[in-house]
Amino acid sequence: MERLLVLAAHPLETRYLPPGLDLVLTGVGMSAAAVRTTEAVLTRCPDPAGRDGLTVLNIGSAGALRDGLSGVHEPSRIINRDVDEQLLRAAGIPVDNVLELGGEGPVLATGDSFVAGGPVRDALAARADLVDMEGWAVAVACRHLGVRLRMVKHVSDAADEAALAWAEKVETSARELAAWFAASDLPAGGPH
């Protein structure tokens, strides 16, 4: 049986999705997203053999790190932006902080801090196209649990000073994500 589990960080991102979805709000940040994703998958599919029929859809807003990047995107790669891989490798510690999702989409950088311009944004723009606070954690949990993942992000802002008005800007993201979902080939009503 094919099942769809929708994960989003914040209720403002999901307000226009159709009713009846199996929807879990993870909360903001990587720790909350990792725990809630793991709980949600294990609650629905405690037996690893049953997980081949489950697809996790992680939807949400993201900040653009490239000028002109807007709309809905499915990232092809995710990096954990909180890990200093050069420093760890120099210390002889192996690092696995890149997840390949496939496709031709942008690179998503995930970390626990909110990006609102400045040197942090500039440094991230050198290695990624989008920034969020949960994608990496959801992807790692899904990979560890053997669950299919589809990730969809809408650009809510330019990860600059204007990003501080996220609560106002996310209205557009919620509408665009719902439109994307309605046009997708995903089931809209929980377990099938």
Automatic annotation (TrEMBL):
Keyword Hydrolase: yes
Location of the Nucleoside phosphorylase domain: 107-173
GO terms, molecular function: purine nucleosidase activity
Top-level taxon of origin: Bacteria
Enzyme class name: hydrolase
Pfam family, one: PNP_UDP_1
Entry protein name: Nucleosidase
Alphabetically ordered keywords of this record: Glycosidase, Hydrolase
BP terms from Gene Ontology: nucleoside metabolic process
Hydrolase as UniProt keyword: yes
EC numbers on record: 3.2.2.1
Organism: Kocuria flava
Gene3D superfamilies, alphabetized: Nucleoside phosphorylase domain
